[in-house]
Amino acid sequence: MLKFEHVSKVYKGGEKAVNDLSLHFKKGEFICFIGPSGCGKTTTMKMINRLIEPSSGSIYINGENILDKDPVQLRREIGYVIQQIGLFPHMTIQENIGLVLKLLKWPEEKRKARARELISLVGLTPDYLDRFPHELSGGQQQRIGILRALAADQPLILMDEPFSALDPITRDSLQEEFKKLQQKLGKTIVFVSHDMDEALKLADRIVILRDGELVQCDTPEEILRNPANEFVEEFIGKDRLVQARPNIQTVEQIMNPNPISITKDHSLLEAIQLMKERRVDALLVVDEQHVLEGFIDVEMIDQKRKKTSLVADAYETEMFTVTEGTLIRDAIRRILKRGMKYIPVVDQDR
Ligand code: ADP
Ligand code: MG
């Protein structure tokens, strides 16, 4: 449905706002771009509907390069909601909702019918249709802005922080409403947020950006389970990380009983032999520093894996793989889930 191929954007005299973004989204997915202010979220959105042209790379919608489309036509085919929703003050709510339909030359009767149909979706009665924007609360105006984007039944909708200016209570209820609406309508939605809670609540997949670069693109569950690096962990927040892992085990529990220490005298090869003797399935090698900190050091493990995988192969042993930034207890959970017995190994050979 939507594909980015090595897309970059450099503003005049500026640094790269978006750097070599390659992504692929399916029809009906709810995608949330998230990252700190200035990381290139809005730039990315605007490139999709050609308000901004990429400096390099290509964007495809349904397999068609957007550069082959007329920009005005393209914008009519894509719904766009921004933070400052900007309803037209001199138009009624009905006219505001029907704006794009008018551009698409729908007859008035059909536009009216569509507006009536839509307004019920967001829990407002049809008599709101004849009101003017100033007669609505901020939250209600925001709902109308969303309906305007949905009116033409465009399959792709871009939403740039549409809820961030709302008070928390209105925001919460709108998020819920909107998620339900999306499940009903099945549109492809590209949503921008700087709020991880919002992203976790709404998205099928979350794209995390930092300084214009892709950091991680995964489902909310996977992002909580396997944050790509410390930046993501920080962005998620420690509280949420711990919440996401109900079966917390302390490092002490994990490294018991009697972890083997690998030192210069005591090699990993011996540990593997021991593993064979004890008929366990895996070694969990963690360097001492990170045992103390409760985190696994990735590079260390990766190097270890390279060094030992040949040995492991020779012994037909499964070496346990740990990805970057994985918490020990999470690694352990995976071992236990697969019913593997393991020997804890502390690497002191540093
Ligand atoms: P976000 O939406 O994630 O906050 P933006 O896409 O708006 O980030 O901006 C990304 C970077 O590009 C920022 O460093 C910003 O200052 C810069 N930028 C955005 N718009 C322009 C512009 N029109 N001209 C020059 N630089 C811009
Ligand atoms: Mg922005």
UniProtKB/TrEMBL annotation:
PANTHER family in the record? CHOLINE TRANSPORT ATP-BINDING PROTEIN OPUBA (PTHR43117:SF3), OSMOPROTECTANT IMPORT ATP-BINDING PROTEIN OSMV (PTHR43117)
Protein topology in the membrane? Peripheral membrane protein
**SMART domains the record matches:** AAA, CBS
Q: Name one GO biological process term.
A: response to osmotic stress
> Which compartments is it annotated to reside in?
Cell inner membrane
Q: What is its EC number?
A: 7.6.2.9
The catalytic activity, as recorded, is: a quaternary ammonium(out) + ATP + H2O = a quaternary ammonium(in) + ADP + phosphate + H(+)
- The answer on whether this UniProt entry bears the keyword rRNA-binding reads no
Name of protein: Quaternary amine transport ATP-binding protein
- Tagged with keyword ATP-binding: yes
Q: Name one GO cellular component term.
A: plasma membrane
Q: How does it assemble?
A: The complex is probably composed of two ATP-binding proteins, two transmembrane proteins and a solute-binding protein.
Which residue numbers delimit the CBS domain?
255-311, 315-350
Pfam families, per the entry:
ABC_tran, CBS
**Highest taxon above the source species:** Bacteria
